[in-house]
Amino acid sequence: MEKYVIEGGVPLYGEVEIQSAKNAVLPLLAAAVLTEGRVVIHKCPRITDVLNMVQILEELGFATSFLGGDLTIDGAAAANHEIPSALAKELRSSVFMLGSVIARFGRARIAYPGGCDIGLRPIDLHLSGLRRLGVQINEEGGYIDCVCSRLTGAEIVLDCPSVGATENIMLAAVRAEGETLIRNAAREPEIADLANFLNRMGARVYGAGTPTVRIEGVPSLRGVEYTPIPDRIEAGTFLIASAMCGGELVLKNADAENLTSLIHKLCEISCKIHADNGKIEIQSRGRVSPKLVETSPYPGFPTDLQAQMMALACICRGSTVVVENLFETRFKHVPELIRMGADITVRGRSAFIRGVPSLKGADVFAGDLRGGAALTLAAISAEGQSSVSDLSHIDRGYSAFEFKLRALGARIRRVRI
Ligand code: UD1
C-alpha cells in the first residue's frame, strides 16, 4: 500500500496539462472490440482503470502496445468472449464490454462488475437495453451470460439517463440490423466523444449529447486513430485545488464548455476565471461559500466533483449545503474531512458544512477515487503535515497526480507503507 505525505499551506502557481478523459477512454477501449482493424488512441492516460481494460482486451485475444501516450489495439486475432472475473471485479467499466463483445462474437460472459464503492450501482438498464436488441441474458452464480444470433435495432427508453447504459447500448446497436433509438439518453460529453469515435470507425450514430440518440446499424467497422476529449473531472479537480490553495494556474488541454456548472460556482465564490482556446486560467482571491452544490446528470454539477467541492466548502466563509443525488453513499470523505477540522453534518443525501478558516493536517484514508482526490486537496491546503492513503483509489483515475501537483509548488510525495 502507498500513501501521500503532504506538507500543506502552499499556494499553487504554474501550468498543468490535463489528461484525456478517463470516462471517454474506457468506453473507447470497449469500442475497439468492434473491429478487426487497428485502433490507436493518442494521449491515452496511464491510469489503473485503463490498464485493467487493456488487460481485459488481451484476455479476449487482442494484441496491445502502449508506447509513449499512444495505445495501439489490434483485433485481428481476437476470439474469446469471456471476461475473467478477477478483472471484471477491478472496474465497473468492464460492463461496457458486454455490448461490444456480443456485437462482435455473438456471445459474452462476464462476472458482475466492481468499481468505486459509492452505493448500489445496478446494471438493470444495461441489461434491459441489450435484451431489447435481441440478446438473451442469463444471470447465474455471479455471472452474466449473453447470447445473440442476430442483433436487431429497437426503441429503448431509459428509466434514468444512465451514462453507462447509454454507452453499452450504443456499442451493441452500431452493429445491429436496422435503427435503434435511445430515449432519455445521458448527455455527458463522453457520450458524444464515443459517438465521434464510432462514426470515425464507419458507424452511423446521430444525436449523441442530446436526450435522443439514433443509431443506424452497419455490418462492419474499421480501425481508427483518435485523440479523446480532455478530462473535465481532472480539470475541475485542479481548478478546485487552486481555489483552495490560492495562487494562479493555467490548465492546458482543458475544455471550459464541459465545465460550466463548476466554473459558474467558482466565479460565484470570487475566483477569476478566463477560458480561451483549450486553456483555462484561474486566479483565486478569498472564498465565500457556494451556498448550494447539488449534483445532477450533465450539464448539472458532476457527482465526480462533489467530494472536491465539499473539501473547498469546508474552508469557505459561510455555510454550504451539498446534495448528492446520483449515488447513495458518496460521502465517505466526510469523516476524514472532519478529522482535519471540518465542520460537517450529514443528513441523508445532504451534507451541511460550516466553513472554518483552515483545515489542519491529519492522517486520512481515501475510500474511493474522487474522495481520495478531495482529501489530497484538503491536505495540500491544510496547515501542517497530512498523509492520505490508500493511493490505489487515486491511481485509478489520475495519472501522475503528485508530479503535476509538485510542479505547481505543492509539497507532496508518495511513500510505500
Ligand atoms: C458514469 C461515470 C462515473 C460517474 C457517473 C455519473 C464512467 C466510466 N463512469 O458511471 O464516473 O460518476 O457516470 O455521472 O463513465 N443506474 C441504474 N441502473 C443502471 C445504471 C445506472 O439505476 O442500469 C443509476 C445508478 O444507480 C445511478 C445513476 O443511474 O444512480 C447514474 O449512474 P450511471 O450514469 O449509469 O453511472 P455510471 O455509468 O456507472
Automatic annotation (TrEMBL):
GO cellular component: cytoplasm
Reaction equation(s) it catalyzes: phosphoenolpyruvate + UDP-N-acetyl-alpha-D-glucosamine = UDP-N-acetyl-3-O-(1-carboxyvinyl)-alpha-D-glucosamine + phosphate
GO molecular function terms attached to this record: UDP-N-acetylglucosamine 1-carboxyvinyltransferase activity
GO aspect biological process, one term: peptidoglycan biosynthetic process
Binding-site residues, phosphoenolpyruvate: 22-23
Keyword annotations: Cell cycle, Cell division, Cell shape, Cell wall biogenesis/degradation, Cytoplasm, Peptidoglycan synthesis, Pyruvate, Transferase
Pathway: Cell wall biogenesis; peptidoglycan biosynthesis
Localization (cell): Cytoplasm
Protein name: UDP-N-acetylglucosamine 1-carboxyvinyltransferase
Species for this entry: Candidatus Borkfalkia faecipullorum
Gene this chain is encoded by: murA
